[in-house]
Amino acid sequence: MNHPTDGTLRRYLDEPSAIVDADRVHLASCDRCQASLSGAEADRTAAADALTTEEVTPPDIDRAWAQMSSAATQPSTALRDALGGHHPRRRRAQRVPLFAAAGVLVIVGSVGVAAATTDWLPIFTTEAVAPVTLTVDDLAALPDLSSYGEVDMPANPGPHEVPDAAAASAETGVAAPAVQRLPTGVVGAPAYHVVPVQTATFTVSVQKIADAAAAAGSALPPPPPGIDGAALRLRIGPGIAEVWGGVGGAPSLVVARVLAPTAASSGVSRDALRDYILAIPGLPRELADQLRAVTGDGNTLPIPVPDDKFTTFSADVSGASATVIQSRDQAMSAVVWAADDMVTVVLGPLSTDEVLSVARGL
Amino acid sequence: MKGMKGALRALPTKDVAALACEHSPGKHPPESHPDRRVVSSEASLPVMRSDLEIVFRGEYGHVLAVARRVLGSSAEADDVAQDVFLSFARSQVPTSEARAWLTVAAAHTALNALRSQRRRGDRERRVAEREIAIDPAEAAVLSTERQRVREALRRLSRQQAIVLVLRHSGLGYAEIAAATSLSAGSVGTTLRRAETALRKELRDESSD
User: How near does any CA of chain B get to the CA of A184, in Å?
Assistant: First the structure.
């Protein structure tokens, strides 16, 4: 009789009932097949040992689920790209261009009304917002603030959830925005998050700016007197974020209101710092021109918007000029405006009409 | 795992491999995606499965174990598990067939990650040392062991590797046959050869 194949013998180890009776009978009386079977069993055991997974720690399923549900409900790559161009599930540290760029833009915006002084004086209060358009590549190419000086960011407390609107207001002193009518598909009560005050101090270093210019292969413009070591103290918040959950745990609507960004100077000549930073090689010229125009009045906060991923237009929200932003795939909309020393943002996987309707009802 | 043949047959090996090799399952536009069950792309608001959380909580540990069987590294296995569930989230695989589908997708994704030479080396050692920091000597030994197994797996043929991983992840012969287009008889033969080859590779490495 023919011997069963190696494959049949191997299957016999795992699924003996799947072997035909004739093979089983043969196996019982064939020394050669018994030896093959023993060899197969030894290989199986060795493979099982090699492929054993050693559970050092049990998986944190709650954390994994939070991570996955967030990624799974990403409405668009556009927003993700703008926020850093990386997949949210990745833990590997990556540069976050928007944050880096925002630092430069806030500095530029903040020095619009800089006054020469040796004391800390308020030099900027957000009274309006305006978009500055650029591309994702522009964002990625921008140097971060540490290329221009020292950034001292104390360990500011992070956002945390509180039980209700009253608790949020009590902790921040900010009146919680009350949404009059939720868009279709957004249901239930929001979770309330408190965003504590965030502060940072930026100290200009002409040496660092010279290094950045040299790296870009350009000469540094002559620094204006007193700029080296000039410091800006930036402050934003506190604020409240109301978050409505959606499918899979991703937000279906976010309404956030924070005390508008302000800046104080320890000694920067008026306009000089802004013009100096705008002249540094590294900022795209078109972006620099926009910033110069937008920040001319000294009270307008520039909002970087990659125009290859988003479109923007202006709209009126209760008398304030708001900037409406929509991803080009129309999966995400946001509206942001400044009024009464507050900056308010409404955003979600909604249409522009829906975010504006929410905004105008606050 | 009854009734899962349909899902596996709907997701042949080469399709899962294509799906997995991108490490970003939503990249394919719906019309060109190898898995026509994928119903949404990242260009639009994802359509989420209502059973996603239940399946995730029930099967995450299993999917992670499949990935760890191949990669060893917990960090990379985590990434693979996330990728696999992202694919699943955008699929219409019946819930009853989810476990087998996830197992096959995890094995392919992990093997692709293994064969991509990037991200190996120092990172794996770092992760291993962090995970098993209780005893640096033991950590070093385990890390070396893991590396040897990964090297050996990398040298197997793709078909041998996938059959080996699927079988040692709990799939039956009929299920593996459905997922690989092999006959059940050929699964046994391939598995036998894969285990022999793996053992030989490990023996050869240890004698080097």
Answer: 15
Give residue B102's Cα distance to chain centre: 8
Distance CA A183, CA A337 (A): 20
- The residue whose two tokens read 């900022």 is A283
Residue A50 makes CB contacts below 8 A (sequence gap 6+) with: B149, B152, B198, B199, B202
For B51, the enclosing helix (H) or strand (E) is none
Above 80 in pLDDT, residue B74?
no
From A82's Cα to the closest Cα of chain B, the distance in A is: 15
Its pTM stands at: 0.45
Per DSSP, A115 falls in state: -
* Strongest mean pLDDT among A136-145, A212-221, B144-153: B144-153
User: Cα–Cα distance between A210 and A149 in angstroms, integer?
Assistant: 10
Tokens for A20? 């035909």
| d(CA A321, nearest CA chain B) in Å | 29
Considering only CB atoms, which chain A residues are within 8 Å of B193? 6
Alpha carbon distance A47, B133 (integer Å)? 26
Helical (H) or strand (E) element with A95 = none
- CB within 8 Å of A311: residues ≥ 6 apart: A325, A326, A328
* φ, ψ for residue A222, nearest 5 deg: -60, 125
d(C-alpha A342, C-alpha A323), whole Å:
15
The one-character DSSP state at B63 is: H
Residue count (chain B): 208
Task: Specify the range with the lowest mean pLDDT, choosing from A1-5, A144-148, A322-326.
Answer: A144-148
> What would the two tokens of residue B190 be?
């391939």
Query: Please, which residues have CB within 8 angstroms of residue A189's CB and are 6 or more apart in sequence?
Result: none
Q: Which residue in A has a C-alpha nearest to residue B171's C-alpha?
A: A14
- Return the bridge partners of A151, or none: A202
Query: 3-class DSSP state for residue A150?
Result: strand
Helices B158-168 + B136-155 axis angle, to 10: 130
Across the interface, whether the CB atoms of A46 and B131 are under 8 A apart is answered no
A8, A11, A69, A76: best mutation site toward chain B, by most B Cβ within 10 Å? A11
State residue A75 phi and psi, 5-degree precision: -75, -20
CA distance B157 to A123: 67
**Tally of CA atoms within 13 A in the half-sphere of B175 that contains its CB:** 24
